[in-house]
Design a protein that fits this description.
This protein has about 375 residues and is mainly β. The chain folds into four domains: about 80 residues, Thrombin, subunit H; about 100 residues, Thrombin, subunit H (Beta Barrel); about 80 residues, Immunoglobulin-like; about 100 residues, Immunoglobulin-like (Sandwich). Helices cover about 5% and strands about 55% of the residues. A six-stranded antiparallel beta barrel has the order 1-2-3-6-5-4.
Length: about 375
């Protein structure tokens, strides 16, 4: 004679139950793998003393599940089938991007027969919770999954609590889609960001043991300086060179280490500098040039040299300026109209034949001609 689990529900929950979160509410539940014909590794059966509804989100063992069907409900418990939300999908509502946890499958199941129904290549089914946000999803709306674009071809709302989307492969919009981050039409409503990071102390520097060196970092977004950017500093060997979260470097013992600066929220944007810890300091000069990378023909632009000694900017050195065509042809398509030991004014030639060609401005350290830096400048039309 088979005994019902219902009278023993409290006992089983207390002794065998596990903590889960149902729509953000903590409770105890019994979880087991599905055992019927349509079982799969991401399918489980949940039983709880608390009512469950199709479409509930269940967080269990660091994974999110969607309750895809309520099997039965008795006086003492409720039982349902839940499946892992295997993808998070972004839908773009006229610039308002909303992410949804859901189930994406390239094949579907027949619950009645318990067998797999094949789907045409390039089509998927997306199962989402039915809520106020997902109800805004419309036919022909596009989205990305695994860096591939899809279009909604059908919407099934016949099951209370969930929405099923029938979707097919679509084409990429190279002008608007953020393919890398799986966001459709992102650049239609947002400005595309191009970040850059440089360490102003140049690529190498020396520091004395137990002495400090402040790293100066410049971050830009689409060429414009960022105000107080969040930057993370790391050392390849903190036993040789240490660095704090403000870019303050200290020599610990003789040797070399690489310091990496990265934008905290865009960690692939990086710059590095090789630091050598020394017992006695020697001069190691480097130069950088700041100024506009383009000049319109017939117009002028100013450039400034910055001289560093072991990564620290110094002001007791000067440079000699020179100008040439990038391809070393003659005559030079511009001229240096004024210069000092650390600044120069460059005027571009006025010929239309110079459009989109390049000149090279060179700064050479007066005290050591082997130390030099070049800046390539593009000549642009007046329009």
């Amino acid at each position: 004679m088979t005994r019902s689990i219902e009278p023993l529900m409290d006992f089983f929950l207390r002794e065998k139950g596990e903590s889960v979160s149902v729509n953000g509410v903590q409770l105890m539940a019994l979880i087991r793998d599905a055992t019927d014909k349509i079982q799969s590794t991401d399918e489980k059966i949940i039983r709880s003393a608390t009512p469950l509804q199709t479409g509930d989100f269940i967080d269990y063992r660091n994974e999110r599940y969607l309750l895809t069907s309520q099997i039965d409900q008795n006086n003492n418990s409720c039982r349902g089938r839940m499946r892992t939300c295997n993808y998070s999908i972004a839908f773009n509502f006229n610039g308002n991007v909303k992410w949804f946890d859901g189930i994406v499958e390239g094949k579907t199941f027949s619950i009645d027969a318990g067998n797999i129904i094949s789907m045409p290549d390039g089509t998927i089914t997306v199962i989402l919770q039915d809520n106020a946000d997902t109800r805004d999803i419309a036919l022909s709306q596009r989205f990305y999954n695994t860096h591939q674009p899809f279009k909604v071809k059908g919407i099934d709302r016949t099951v209370n609590g969930i929405i099923k989307l029938s979707c097919s492969l679509d084409s990429i919009s190279t002008a608007y889609d953020d393919v890398e981050n799986n966001i459709v039409d992102r650049w239609k409503y947002e400005i595309a960001h191009t970040y850059a990071l440089t360490i102003d102390n140049r690529t190498t520097a020396n520091v004395l043991i137990n002495d400090i060196l402040q790293l100066n970092v410049t971050a830009t977004d689409n060429g414009s300086p960022m105000v107080n950017p969040a930057i993370t500093f790391t050392s390849s060997d903190s036993n040789v060179v240490s660095v704090d979260n403000k870019g303050m470097v200290m020599g610990v013992e003789a040797g070399q280490a690489t310091i990496t600066a990265a934008l905290t929220y865009h960690p692939t944007v990086q710059a590095t500098i090789q630091i050598t810890t020394v017992e006695t300091q020697t001069h190691t000069y480097t130069i950088s040039i700041t100024g506009n990378p383009t000049i319109k023909v017939g117009q002028s632009a100013s450039y400034v040299s910055h001289i560093y000694d072991n990564g620290i900017e110094v002001f007791d050195q000067s440079v000699v300026w020179s100008l040439r065509n990038q391809d070393n042809s003659t005559p030079v398509m511009g001229s240096i109209t004024a210069s000092t030991g650390n600044s120069a004014t460059v005027k571009a030639g006025s010929s239309s034949s110079y459009y989109n060609k390049y000149i090279v401005l060179t700064a050479t350290l007066s005290s050591d001609p082997t130390v030099t830096i070049e800046k390539t400048i593009q000549l642009k039309s007046l329009i």
